[in-house]
Amino acid sequence: MAERVPHPQRLYFELVDRCLQPGMRWLDVGCGRQLTPEWLPDQAAVDARLKSRAGCFVGIDLDYAALQRNDCCSYRVLAGANALPFRTDSFDLVTSNMVFEHIQQPQVVAAEIRRVLREGGRLLVHTPNVLDVVTVAARLIPNRLHPMVVNWIEGRADEDVYPTYFSFNGRRSIEAILHSAGFGGVRISYLDHPNAYGRLPVIAQIEALWHWVARYVPPLRGTLLVEAQAR
Asked: What is the domain range of residue 115?
């Protein structure tokens, strides 16, 4: 059960790296305070490489404090994804990393993303799998209690915990929403997630068992990597 797996964040940014061509107009939906996680050993190098390749790199978020701290995006916009303040066909690539689980109306957001993407443009989404053990637990706990629980388990500050809805986070939902919004070539990959709660004995055992089973049953894996193309 202790076998090491590639972290899904690493796989997500490798995909972004492959898809981002020089000069592309790139929008990151829910950009937060940083592009790549601080714990990535080569965080600064990845950030610099991706930013330098984009012709225009725009990040949007509803969290003003997070936007103020983001020094990776060339342009930062305080806006929601359900009404993107950009013209039609403005971007070649749209990405979203661990954001869609927080969106209440993913159909509206998907349609807006399609609007601002040129025909043939790419959408890359990384989001939790609705059947992962952590997601199952999160869905059972009311949103009002999430800050307290997450603070106890992960030590995360209340302001870094956002409500979750998981309206997008299953294969059937993703395919239906993206096809309806005008996307084709939808590809969904199930990514293994390494165990994260080793310091909490009972939780760690449940998590380790679930992830071990998920190695053989892909629909139970931790996160989803979604690729789609604007038709």
From this structure: 8-129+164-195+222-230
Q: How many domains is the chain built from? A: 1
Handedness of CA 88, 90, 91, 94 (dihedral sign): negative
CA atoms within 13 A on the CB side of 43: 10
145 lies in some domain:
no
Model-wide pTM > 0.90: yes
The answer to whether position 173 is within a domain reads yes
Asked if residue 177 is part of any domain, the answer here is: yes
- For each of the chain's 231 residues, which pLDDT tens digit applies? 444 678 999 999 999 999 999 999 999 999 999 999 998 989 999 999 999 999 999 999 999 999 999 999 999 999 999 999 999 999 999 999 999 999 999 999 999 999 999 999 999 999 999 999 999 999 999 999 998 988 888 888 888 899 999 999 999 999 999 999 999 999 999 999 888 777 778 888 999 999 999 999 999 999 999 999 999
